Amino acid sequence: MNHARDLKYLDMAARHAVRAFGNASPNPMVGCVIVRHHADSRPDEILGIGHHRIYADLHAEREALACARRHAHDVRGSTMYVTLEPCSHTGKQPPCTQAILDSGVGEVVIACRDPGELSGGGASVLRNAGIVVRFVDAARARLAGLLGHAFELDAVHGRPFVISKWAQTLDGRSATRTGESQWISNEASRRRVHAWRGRLDAIMVGIGTVLADNPRLTARGVRARRRAFPVVIDPGLKTPIDAALLESGHPVCVVTTPDAPVRDAELSERGATVLRVPADPNGHPHLALALRELRSHFNVTNVMVEGGPRLHGALLDAGLVDALLVYVAPMLLADPEALPAAVGRVGGVGGVGGQAPRLADATGFRLGRVRRVVDDLELFYVREPSGLTNASES
After folding, report:
1. I need a labelling partner for 308 at 20 to 30 A (CA). Which of 6, 158, 287, 338 fits?
2. Could you tell me which of 189, 192, 196 has the C-alpha nearest to residue 377?
3. β-strand partners of 373
4. DSSP state of 157
């Protein structure tokens, strides 16, 4: 057993898996690498690489096996590295466990278990057939673990994977004291945000952002793989009938509470669905319940939040943020009244309440990737493994 080697190939499989970001949904992104290890000093041979490219198409394991066949590689006795436990049922595709058994692969190394009632259990099927199966700690597998967490949120907890995105100054401010925020990040960073939009199921903002900025929430100037579904968190149902995001005629969801004014028919004529969910202790839509409704009614498996500091803070308070996408611009405001990136703890905006007087009270994230975008920095953080849990609905 070589842990460093396991992590190397699971990371390779995960990096191939994310190529399907925007195409595989609502299926999980899965990657697979087939390797032959030699007992002597010869280097490893990569026999096949695959990932689940498009929903309903070949799964990663079958694509990797097909890749090996195209290159005339014999996979018998080799080791297969896969980011998610191979499926054991027939869905859009036949079970991957049968393909593995037919191939003669000798060992399967897995980053994450499949928690699905129908699709799970593949490891036991393989073991019972005499194949060596090992699981690697998903938290150590980094990107593969993140992919597994996203799938677990969907399969077990029924909610989408949530990415909070914002632009900030070097001193952590997302807007001036008067609310001016356009533009903190540079044009190249904004173009990258549009590329993200073109791969996501949904984009979420608060009513404050709609009223202040009147955004369209579309992917512009980039090749979009899908049209993200706009979601507005609107406690008082104040979304204007002439809001820019309603002009396209494409579906929009406005999330509010049962006690909000009745404007459902008026907004429906403009293509908006009004989703009423129970209120949290502050009278705002209960965000955990709203996310579950977005998954069950609109098939949303991932969402990027582009709202203001209070929406980001409320989601962080509720333990619903799984990743952060932060653009840091080379400027300083040095103004104590300028708006921070997230506000949620003081006063209990998110329904949790309380302050954070100690560093130990902070929400922990792990840096996943850094990219320079001209003079901006694009930082992608993932939630620390201890925080990768489903939020309470109480």
Report:
1. 158
2. 189
3. 376
4. I
In one-letter notation, the amino acid at residue 34 is I
Among 220, 214, 216, 168, which residue's Cα sits nearest to residue 194? 220
Q: How far apart are CA 392 and CA 193, in angstroms?
A: 30
Residue 79, classified by CB atoms within 10 Å of its CB into exposed (0-12), middle (13-18) or buried (19+), is buried
Q: Give the CA count within 13 Å in the CB-facing half-sphere of 224.
A: 17
Query: Residues near 117 by Cβ (< 8 Å), separated by ≥ 6?
Result: none
Query: 301-331, pLDDT tens digit by residue?
Result: 999 999 899 999 999 988 899 999 999 999 9
* Rounded Cα distance, 260 and 243, in Å: 19
117 catalytic residue (yes or no):
no
Residue labelled with tokens 């403009």: 270
Residue 224 backbone dihedrals phi, psi, to 5 degrees = -95, 130
Active-site annotation holder among 61, 63, 85, 293 = 61
Nearest to 63 by CA among 31, 22, 108: 31
User: DSSP letter at 352?
Assistant: S
pTM for the whole structure: 0.83
